[in-house]
Automatic annotation (TrEMBL):
RNA polymerase sigma factor 70 region 4 type domain ranges (all copies): 94-142
This protein's name: RNA polymerase subunit sigma
Protein family: Belongs to the sigma-70 factor family. ECF subfamily.
Coiled-coil portions: none
Any single Pfam family the record assigns to this protein: Sigma70_r2
DNA-binding found in the keyword field: yes
InterPro entries for the chain: RNA_pol_sigma-70-like (IPR039425), RNA_pol_sigma-70_dom (IPR014284), RNA_pol_sigma70_r2 (IPR007627), RNA_pol_sigma70_r4_t2 (IPR013249), RNA_pol_sigma_r2 (IPR013325), RNA_pol_sigma_r3/r4-like (IPR013324), WH-like_DNA-bd_sf (IPR036388)
NCBIfam families: sigma70-ECF
Keywords: DNA-binding, Sigma factor, Transcription, Transcription regulation
Keyword DNA-binding attached: yes
Transmembrane portions of the chain: none
Residue ranges of every copy of the RNA polymerase sigma-70 region domain listed in the record: 4-61
A GO term, aspect molecular function: DNA binding
Length: 160
């Protein structure tokens, strides 16, 4: 469940999640000998899932630029939002994920791991296989973009 949840949150839809998780588990099985600390299995598997999602996102973006890819999959609110979430909250989630889909894969992944999944910066760096400084830059770029483009319809200043 952890791997599926993580891949769905990063992808924004369940379109390719089963394939991604399947590939991640195959890779984990092949590399099981690389796992030094069994207590770190969850983070280790998470980094493999993140790598597989990133590869899929980059390939999809490249194919899209070449005119050979599938059209962008709409955000799957049922997979991302609680059934108890208000229509307003669901609209906000849809808008955030639509904006995230326009970001580079690395910025999007880092922001989701930190802001949606709630991982600390060190864990995000480990899962994305980059330095702490790089993770901070990626999250900052994504947050700056979202701050500049997100429009909250309930905010009275947005309509003036």
């Amino acid at each position: 469940a952890f791997a599926i949840h993580l891949a769905t949150r990063i992808e924004g839809s369940a379109r390719d999640v089963e394939d991604i998780v399947h590939d991640a588990f195959l890779r984990a099985f092949e590399r099981l000998g690389d796992l030094v600390d069994p207590a770190a299995f969850r983070a280790w598997l998470g980094s493999i899932v993140v790598h597989k999602v990133r590869s899929r996102m980059r390939r999809a973006r490249l194919l899209g630029m070449l005119g050979m890819g599938k059209s962008s999959e709409p955000v799957d609110l049922d997979a991302l939002a609680s059934p108890a979430a208000s229509p307003h909250a669901r609209a906000q989630i849809a808008q955030i994920y639509a904006l995230l889909q326009t970001l580079p894969a690395d910025d999007r992944i880092a922001w989701i791991l930190r802001s949606v999944e709630g991982h600390d910066l060190e864990t995000v760096a480990q899962m994305t296989d980059c330095s702490l400084a790089t993770v901070k830059r990626r999250i900052s770029r994504a947050q700056h973009f979202l701050d500049g483009h997100f429009v909250d319809p309930t905010n009275s200043e947005a309509s003036t």
